Amino acid sequence: MEKTFKSPLKHIAFSVFAWLVGLMIFFPIFWMVLTSFKSELDAISMPPMFFDFDWTLANYVEVQARSNYFKFAMNSVVLSVGSTLIGLVFAVTCAWAMAFSPTKRTKNALLWMLSTKMMPPVGVLVPIYLVFRDWGLLDNRFGIMMVLFLMNLPIMVWMLYTYFKEIPKDILEAARMDGATMPKEILFVLLPMAVPGIASTMLLNIILAWNEAFWTLNLTTSDAAPLTAFIASYSSPEGLFWAKLSAASTMAVAPILIIGWFSQKQLVRGLTFGAVK
Amino acid sequence: MSTRSSTLTGRIMAAPSIIILFLWMIVPLGMTIYFSFLRYNLLMPGMEEWTGLDNYYFFLTDPAFFASLANTLLLVGSVLIITVVGGILLGLMLDQAIFGRGILRLLIIAPFFIMPTVNALVWKNLLMHPVSGMFAWIATSFGLQPIDWFSEAPLTAIIIMVAWQWLPFAVLILLTALQSLDRDQREAAQMDGAGPISIFFYITLPHLGRAITVVILIETIFLLTVFAEIFVTTGGGPGLATTNIAFLVYTQALLQYDIGGASAGGIVAVILANIVAIFLVRLIGKNLDR
What we know:
The complex is a heterodimer. Chain A is an all-alpha fold. Chain A contains 13 helices and no strands. In chain A, helix 4 packs across helix 9 (about 180-210) and helix 7 crosses helix 9. Chain B is built from 13 helices and 2 strands, in the order H-E-E-H-H-H-H-H-H-H-H-H-H-H-H.
C-alpha cells in the first residue's frame, strides 16, 4: 500500500527529506569506503577531506601484503559456506518431513528448536571452550564450522518449514493420479517448487555465519580466524591505520552487503521465524 | 493423508536434526550447571571441589554483577526504544511515494549486513574519535567542544553503534507489516474526517502491534548477548562502564580462568534470556496455528 501525493511539489519535497535521512543512516558505510581510498595522512586530516584528496589503491594492496588478508577471507568463505551446506543437508530433510508428514508432535518439536536459539552463547561458552581445548579444536576450521552449523540449524529448519508448508499438497495428489512415482514426484514436482525457498535460506544463513562474532572471536586465534577476528585485530589503541582499517573493512563487508541486498525480503521471514512475512 | 509408513519415514528424516540439536543444547548446558557448583580455576588444576551455591553467591553479590546487569538493561532498553520508534518513523517514511524508493531502502537496510567488529571500529575511529573523527569536526564547526565518546559517555557510544546496526531490522519488519495494512480501512477513516494523527493511533499502530512485539522480543534475545562491539572498542571499561553480563562472564572465564564463577554467571544469563524466550515462543506458537 503506497500513499501518493496530491501535488508534485510535495512529492519532491518529501523525497528530498527522505533521501537526506537515508544518506545520514548510510553515511558511516560511505565514509568507510571513501576513507579506504585515502592515504593514512589524509584519512585523519582535519577538516575531513571529502573528494579532494589523492585517490589511491595502496591500502588494498598493503592490507594483503602485510597481513595476508586472503587467508582470513578464505576462512570466512569456508566457514560460512561450509556450515551452510552441512546445515542444509540436515535442515532440508527435517523441514521436509515436518511439512509433508506432520505428526502431533511436530509443532512442539518446532517450538522446542526455536527455544534452543534463545540460549545465550555465554551460557555454554565455558564447556564449549574447555571441550574444544581438550579435543584440539580451538582455532580449528572444522570445530568452528560445527558451532556455526549448530547455531543456525534452528533458523534453517524454521525458514525451510515455512516455505515447504506453502507448497500445495494437492499438486502431489495430482501427480500421483498421473502415475508419478515417489522419486519422480520429488524430482519433478516438489523440488522445482522448493528451490527458491532453499536458495534464500542458504543466503540468509551465509550472512549470519559470515557476521557471527561471538564464537569466532572466542574460539579462533589465527589459523581458522575469519574476517570478524581479522578486523578485531585492528582495535589496538596505538594503531592509527584508519585507511587500512577501512580498506580491510570494505573488503570484509562488500560480499555480504551484496548478498544481503538481494535477499532482504527473505530476511524478514527467516529472522522472525515466519511470524512476519 | 499421511500413511503409517510415511509418518515413520518422516520421523526418521526429522530425527537427526532434533537429536543433534538436543545434544548441542543439553550437554554443554549440563556441564555449565555442573561447573557452576565447583570451585574450579584453570590456574589451579586438580583443585576442583564441590562448593554448592558459593559461585552463585559470589557472582550475585559481586558489585560487578549489579553494574553489568544495569548496563545490560540500559543497553537493551535504549536500543529497543531507538530502533522501535525509529523503525516506525522510517517505515512510515518508506511507505510513501518517494523518488528512487527502492535504492533508498537499500541504503537504509545496509547497516544490518555490516559485521559487528567492522561496525564498532568504524564508529569508534572514523566517526567518534575525539580529535580526527567526523563528529569532532561537526562539533568544532558549530563552535562546540568535541565529545570524547569513549571516556565521557562510553555506554552511550556502544548504544548508538548497536542501535545503528539494529535499526534496519526494525525498519524491514515494520515496513513489511505496514504494507499489509488494508488501504480501504484508512480511506474510510479519512472519509469520516479522521486526521493523519488519529489514523496513526487508531488504525496504523494497532495494526503494527504484532510486528512491534516480534521486533522487541527478537532484538532482546540478540541484545542481551552483545559482545563483539564491546570486545573491540572498550574491553568493558573504563572500569565497568560498558561491561554487560555477557562480557562479564567472558572476562571471568577466559581472562580470570574462574570456570566455576563464569559458569554460575552463564546460568544467570540463561535464566534472564529464558524469561524473554517464554513470551516469544508463545507468541510464535500461536501464529503457527493459524
